[in-house]
Every structure is written in C-alpha cells, then in structure tokens.
Amino acid sequence: MAVTRIFFNPRLKIMMTIAAVTGGLIALRLVDIQVLRHNAYLQMAERNRTQIIYQTAPRGRVFTADGVAIASNVPAFGLYYLGGNKDPQYLEQLARDFATRLHLPEEKLLEKLRAGAASGKATLLAENLSTKSTVALQELQFYYPGMYLIEETKRSYPYGSLASHLLGYLSSMDERQWRKRDVKLGYRLTSKIGKNGIEKKFEQDLKGKDGGVYLEVDYRGRVKSIIEDKKWAAGSDVYLTLDFAVQQAAEEGLKKSKTGRGAAVALDPRTGAVLAMASAPAYDPNIFVPYSEEDFGDATQKINEYNLAIQGVYPPASTFKIITGAAALESGTLDVNRKVYCSGKYDSGPRVFKCWGTHGPMDFFDGMSHSCDVYFYAVASQIGAAAIERVQRMFMFGRQTGIDLPGEKAGNLYGPTRRARNKTYWFIGDTLNLSIGQGELLVTPIKLAQFAAAIASRGNVYKPYYVEKIVSNQTGKTKQVGERVVLQHADLKPETYDTLFKALKHTVDTGTAARVRLRGLDVYGKTGTAQNPHGADHGWFMAFAAYPGEEPSIALAVFVEFGEGGSSAAGPIAREMLEAYFNNPAHAPKAKSQADYDELLGGETHA
Question: What is d(CA 65, CA 556) in angstroms, rounded to the nearest whole number?
Fold first, then answer.
C-alpha cells in the first residue's frame, strides 16, 4: 500500500520524469560528441593543443661574376602570440609591456593580440626583430605565457644602393596578390615577394621552401614541447655577369659627378654580357626590409625607380660621328687625308651652322679626335643623309637592345626614309644635325654601350644579358641562363673598321677622349655633348679597350645628365671603370705572367 502511494506521488513522478529527460539529453550529447561529431571535436582539441609557426626560408643569394654577394640574408626573429589566455586585462598588460620593445603603437599591438586570442591560432605580432632587440624579449617570453620568439632570416643588401635598379626590392603582398599565387609554392599573406628587378623576375627561383615548428601548448598558451621542427630549404642562388669592381666604379663615379644624375653601362663585346649597369640617383633596397627598430620614415615613397640606363632617351651627340664616318668610308668617296678648313662655322646656304670651336684644317682623324662639327657637316653634305641612315639601321638604332628587363625604350631612328613615310620634308639642316647626332635622333645609355661593343667586335650587335646561371641550393643543379646571341651583324668593309679603330685610338691619344688614356692598353673612345633646350647640356662618353694584340674585352657608355661636357663630366667615370676592369688579374691575357701584367699596368699617362 505504501509502495503504491509512493509510486503515484505526483511530485516524485515529475522529478523522475525530469531526471529521465536530463539523462536522455546527456546521453544524446555524449553520442553527438563521441560518435556523430567525434572527428570535428578531435580536430578542435588538436588545434587547442598544437600550434604551427611557419618559418620563411632564406631567399637565394645574388652574386656578381666574381663571387661577391650583393643580395643575401641576415638573422632576424619573429614574435608570435599562441592564444591561450583570452582575459582582456591580460592582453592589455601584454600590449603595455611589449609595445615599446616592438616599436609598435600600443593600440595596434592590442588589436593583434585580441585577434590572436579570438582565432586561437599562432599570430605574428612583429617580424624582422634584430638579435639585439630580442635580448629583453627572450626573457619576457618566460614570464608571459603565450609569447614565443622564433628565428628566421631577412633580406639584406650588403652594399646598399649598389645595382639597385637591377636587383629591385621586396615588399609585402596584398590579399589580391596572395590569391593569385600558386598555393603549392607556400605563400602566405605575411610573405615578402619581389616587386621589381631581379627579385621580381626570378621570384620563383629565389623563393625557398618554408619550414615550420609544431608546438604542443597548454590551455594558457605555454609551450610544453616541440613536436616537430620542419627545416626550411633555401632558394636558388642567382649568378650575374656583373664585375663587382666595375659596377662599384660606375656607381661611385655617377654619385660624385657634377649632378649626381646619369647612367653607365659596360658590356663584354665578345658576348654581350653586362659587366656593369648603374643608374643615378639610386636607392637602398634595405629600406623595404628594415629591422623593426629601424625607421626610414617615408623613404620608400621617395625612391626613384626610373632606370635611366634603359629608359632615358637623349641625343647621342658627337658619339654619333662614328656612324657618319662609317657611312662616308663605306661610300668609297672619302679621302681620309683630305683636309676641311674649320673656321668655326659652316654655311649651308639657308643657314649658317656653328662648330663648338675653331679648328683650322682637319682631316678625318683630326676631325674625329677634335670632334669638329664643320668637318662632319662637310662629309654629310657630300654623302647624303640616306647613307648615314643606312648605317644607323645596321647597328639597330631606333630599336631596343633586347635586354630582358621591363620598360626598355627603343629611342628614335632619324633619317629621310622615316620622314618620307610620314610624308614630310627633309632639309639640308636635318642632314647636318643628323651628322653630329642631334635633331630627332634619340638613344638610351644601354643602346650606346651596345653600339660601342658592336664597333669593338667589328660588327656583332649582341643582345645584352646580365644573368649567367642559377644554382639550386636543394639539388646542387645548375641552370644556365645567359647565352651569347647575335641580333644582327653590321657588315662594314674590314678597312672601314680598321680606319674607325685608328680614328678612335687617335681620339684617345691626342684628342677629346684623352682622359681615358691608360698605359699598356689600347683604348678607343669618343666624347659627346648633347644640346639641351631645357637647361645645361648632357655629357656622353663611349669607349672600348684591349691589351695590345688582344681583342677588346670591355665596351662602355657613360651619360651624365646636365653634365655640360662629355670629356669633363663622363670621361672620369669611364676611366675609373676601365681601371677597375683591367686592375683585376682575372682579366689579364692568359699568355702573360703576373710579373708582366704588373709591369704593364705599372703606370699611366695623361694628355
């Protein structure tokens, strides 16, 4: 009877029902956790227990032909927050204590900490921390659970602005760029990529294979153990054709020039390999990858990315007299010994054209060595503009050199054929301007260097190249990149080249190019002063050189913007570049002993 009363007690019945329902719900939840959503909860638990920090692989280095690293890597650290403690007051304390040491605004750091706490994933707080700046941080990370320092590398350019327009620079990706990248290559939103020059062009070769550290952490974010340390693999090394000493001489020479603005290009006339390519003003690519404590302000917004060596177009001025002379020699009507009297002016009929000096009687060799305008006015009037234009085309004026760099300008071919196509007239004044490299004729510094190399090689117009090979740091395999390519051959008569060589040697020995005369070397050169209606004239100097009895092994062109005179402004730079090249024993004739080599370059003479 008592049992029946208990069983039918309404309150007890309600309690038993609640207990049964509750038990059922718990059972369902357990089934959900342990069976239905087991894998999902397991992954969540693993994420809470395991953190992954990626380590960016060192980029491949960039070497000059003589083994100098002009782009390399230096140690750097990254500071991560591993989540764990999400307490707002704790995060605020972290921001206060670390902001100054990380050179970050407190609010910005707190924002990153909150984002890391919310995601539960390892969050990068600061990168490119120097070894010096991490001394205090290494101690602090033990007092603040969840903070973790990891060693990486950062890009470094040991010689600052050297070859900066060729090397380019690194910068962070935005989300749009990141989405375009191949996922297999391991790019992350924090990755730095090449944005210009070699860094951009050879990005996939230079980028290595990133590593990572897999950490076991507790609920507070404190590291319990390192589960796996996956080592990185460095990117491939790029070997350039540049000669370090010649490049350095070009850079320093331009920097010290009258205006600090210009370009210098040196080529190997036997292959087309670029020995030096400098553009001024240059910039220091280190400012794009600074240590966290370095402050370059808005310097990255003020750099001049304009590569004057391949993009600047100017009249070649008197350097073009080589073309006029070649056209006259090819015509068969020129007597190199016949003298033309220079009174300082030339009467063309409609107009009187002036010479830069009063030279008196000039034959071909004197006309070239003293750069007498009147002499070349007379020659051009005799042979006509069409003959000059024809030789221009043989040396590919008005066309790109073909160097594998973006943005190269073609310059402008100048002659009566172009005018005829445009249905406009050609006048005697145009012929005279053309003969001395003025008027509508335009070239880049690299085009003039290509022309100097073509004369030096007796007609081979080579495609310039600046990368010799790429060597993998992972496999050791070498990929040959540079190759000798003849774009065109300027098929002048052998005696024409002989006479040009003689005239250009005479210009160095006794004339306006005497600044590059060097003892023990055969140096050939020509100056140019380009008229500039907008200000001071521009200075040009082109040259090539060889050991006696050897073929020329270096050809160059130097341009100084607003330099006023080719001899005074560009000549000293050309000389320094030649000295840098021939002072290297590696370029000595193989048949000579070191003693003979030292004696050969034991002194110098000046005109």
Answer: 18
Q: Which two tokens stand for residue 566?
A: 């080719």
At 117, give phi and psi (nearest 5°): -65, -40
Cis omega (within 30 of 0) for bond into 572: no
What is the residue whose two structure tokens read 């100054």? 100
Task: Name which CATH class applies to 50-240.
Answer: alpha beta
Q: Are 316 and 153 in contact (CB under 8 A)?
A: no
Contact 576, 252 (CB under 8 A): yes
Cα(78)–Cα(55) distance, integer angstroms: 9
Q: Note the pLDDT of residue 182.
A: 56
pLDDT at 402: 96
Over the Cα atoms of the chain, what is R_g?
35
Instruction: Determine the straight-line distance between the first and last CA of the chain, rounded to whole angstroms.
Output: 137
Nearest to 323 by CA among 229, 251, 393: 393
Q: How far is CA 234 from the centre of its chain?
A: 21
CB count, 10 Å around CB of 455? 26
pLDDT above 50 for 606: no
Contact 355/342 with Cβ under 8 angstroms? Answer: yes
d(CA 247, CA 159): 11
Neighbours of 589 (CB within 10 A): 14
pTM of this structure: 0.86
Rounded to whole angstroms, how far apart are CA atoms 243 and 266?
Answer: 9
For the segment 371-385, what is each residue's pLDDT rounded down to a tens digit?
Answer: 999 999 999 999 999
Q: Report the CATH number of the 311-600 domain.
A: 3.40.710.10
Q: What residue has token string 């207990």?
A: 19
Lookup: tokens for 101: 């040491």
Q: In Å, what is the CA distance from 21 to each residue of 11, 16, 37, 453? A: 16, 9, 22, 94
Cα separation, 171 vs 159, in Å, equals: 19
How much is the mean pLDDT over the chain? 88
Euclidean distance between CA atoms 527 and 507, whole angstroms = 9
- Tell me the C-alpha to C-alpha distance, in Å, between residue 107 and each of 96, 102, 120, 462: 9, 13, 20, 58
CA distance 319 to 177: 45
Which residues sit opposite 148 in a β-bridge?
Answer: 80
Read off the amino acid at residue 550: E
d(CA 411, CA 356): 25
3-state class (DSSP) for residue 65: coil
Q: Where are the domains of the chain?
A: 50-240, 311-600
Q: Could you tell me the CA-to-CA distances from 559 to 314, 315, 552 in Å, in that order?
A: 9, 11, 21
